[in-house]
Amino acid sequence: MFWYEQLDQKIKEEMPQLQWVSETPMARHTSFHVGGPARRMASPATAEELVRLMELARQCGVKPFVMGNGTNLLAADEGLDTLVIKTAERLNGIRRPEEDVLEADAGVSLARLAVYAQQAGLSGLEFAHGIPGSLGGAVCMNAGAYGGEMKQVITEVTAWWPDGVRTICAEEAELSYRHSIFSDCDAVVLSARVRLTKDDPAQIRARMDDLMARRKQSQPLEYPSAGSTFKRPVGNFAGTLIDQAGLKGLTVGGAQVSEKHAGFVINIGGATCRDVEELIRQVQAVVRERSGVELEPEVKIIH
């Protein structure tokens, strides 16, 4: 019996309420719109469901891949022979345990959390309004933009580890540039708390609108992409190095280095994961030759 047949049986017996599907194309669940079918995809509604699902998967000998909105992912064209757990579908509650503290589930979109904070008169998440990812992914990679980052507001994170669920403080999460303790271990973020500052909702909204306008003006939001393709090299910007190398508009299949912002690889139509990977390799090679800088992908490629 295959692992997924065993898992199907366990889910039907122990988690009949779980929302799950078979052979769903990852292209439907990633912002780049590429990727073959995931063998199984489930959308837990609670942290308890997610934890139980992780345990059942382990019993069947499979390591699940946990995702949020799929905004920083490239999935293989041939698909994923694993269980994909998507938190963004249903694991998206927001709570206010203290006057200046918000607690949110891993699947909550950063945009929604930022708006929630703004309407509550809480400042500190303005930078996150235009970031399309989920809170879980933002914690894992310490997402940031326009001088702000999650490290500035996170106070604690609750996560599942193979030995159980526990809550750690921000210092233990080891948040740094596009990295955290969750980048290097098997833990899964369930929820996080952020501490914000009271401010006038109208002023917060104005700052959010300004950042969104700047984003729309400078980034190719009209095309599918996974956001910034490369991490920022020390002392420079990936987009600047790519532009200086004359690579704007470089195309492989349906993947292209954006002519609007060289730091973005976009899907101009029918791109495959192979197209994107090959384009990334070409960009890295030319930039390495021209400037001696090794660009490191920010986008996560899963096979």
Give a short summary of the structure:
The protein has 303 residues and is α+β, with helices and mostly antiparallel strands.
- End-to-end distance: 23 Å
Q: Which percent range describes the beta-strand content?
A: 25-35%
- Could you give the count of β-strands? 19
Low-confidence stretches: none
Percentage of residues in helical conformation: 25-40%
Our count of helices gives: 7
Radius of gyration: 20 Å
Structural class: alpha+beta
- How would you characterize the largest beta sheet? 5 strands, antiparallel
Question: Can you walk me through this structure?
Answer:
By secondary structure, this protein is α+β, with helices and mostly antiparallel strands. Helix content is 28%, strand content 27%. The protein is built from seven helices and 19 strands. The strands form six sheets. It has a five-stranded antiparallel sheet. The chain has a four-stranded mixed sheet with strand order 1-2-5-3, with no helix packed on it. It is globular, with a radius of gyration of 20 Å. The two termini are 23 Å apart. The mean pLDDT is 96.
Main attributes of the structure:
single chain, alpha+beta, 19 strands, 28% helix, 27% strand, globular
Topology:
Layout (H helix, E strand, L loop, with lengths): L2 H12 L4 E7 L11 E7 L3 H13 L5 E3 L5 E3 L4 E7 L7 E5 L2 E5 L4 H10 L2 E2 L11 H6 L3 E2 L2 E2 L4 E8 L2 E6 L18 E8 L1 E2 L2 H18 L6 E4 L9 H7 L6 E2 L2 E3 L6 E4 L5 H19 L8 E3 L1
Helix pairs in contact: 1-2
